[in-house]
Amino acid sequence: MAVPFLNLVKQYEGIKEKVDAAVAEVMSSARYIGGPNVTEFEKEFADYCETSCAVACANGTDGLYLSLRALELDPGDEVITTPLTFVASLGAIREAGATPVLVDAREDTLNINADLIEEKITDKTRAIMPVHLYGQPAEMDKILDLADRHGLGVVEDACQAHGSRYKGRRAGSMGTSGSFSFYPTKNLGAYGDGGCVTTNSEKFAEAIRSIADHGRTTWTHHAKEGINSRLDAIQAAVLRIKLRRLDEWNERRRKLAGIYLESLANIPEVRTLSIIEGAEPVYHLFIIRVSSRESVMEKLRERGIGCAIYYPVPAHLQPAFSFLGYGEGSFPVAEKATTEVLALPLYPEMDESQVPEVLVALKESL
Ligand SMILES: *Cc1c(COP(=O)(O)O)cnc(C)c1O
Question: Where in the chain does DSSP place strands (E)?
Answer without folding.
Answer: 53-57, 78-81, 99-102, 125-128, 153-157, 165-166, 169-170, 177-181, 195-199, 216-218, 221-222, 271-272, 279-280, 286-289, 341-344
